[in-house]
């Protein structure tokens, strides 16, 4: 078995358990919910095939949906993030860079990685909370949920990436 596969599997179950047991119960000011499992989609290497990213992220989203009682929200949102992640990553790396680039603070630098993670986290939160509300009746709560959850999740993603690389 490949060591990268085992690391990916450990990250998969670690993020799923952390989200299900701890982070699902955190709701700052009634609007901000940390959705740290999006870090799983952010952390795929450039050389990872698109179909495997889609499967991994769909399964993680499905697991989160089972534990969170959000039927299909996390699975759909994570699949969308997995689908756009390679194209967003192309904006931040050179064409002549090696194929096995791992997105992290160490390889991108703090500014580029923060922007990369911000874009993917925002796409995730926008999709997740739009599907959750499924209407724009209470658009202010919807907008606050997206912005505050994106900020809180981005902060946790940066901390998690910094801890993972130490």
Detailed description of the structure:
The protein has 166 residues and is mostly helical. It has seven helices and no strands. Helix 1 runs parallel beside helix 3.
Key terms:
166 residues; mainly alpha; 7 helices; 70% helix; globular
Short précis:
This protein is mainly alpha-helical and 166 residues long.
Total number of strands: 0
Alpha-carbon distance between the termini? 25 Å
Number of helices, where a helix is a run of at least 4 consecutive DSSP H or I residues: 7
Supply Rg. Answer: 15 Å
Overall morphology:
globular
Main sheet summary: none
- Proportion of residues in β-strands: under 5%
What is the ordering of alpha helices and beta strands? HHHHHHH
Uncertain residue segments = none
Which class best fits the helix and strand makeup? Answer: mainly alpha
Helix and strand arrangement:
Layout: H1 3-21, H2 38-42, H3 50-68, H4 73-90, H5 105-108, H6 110-133, H7 139-165
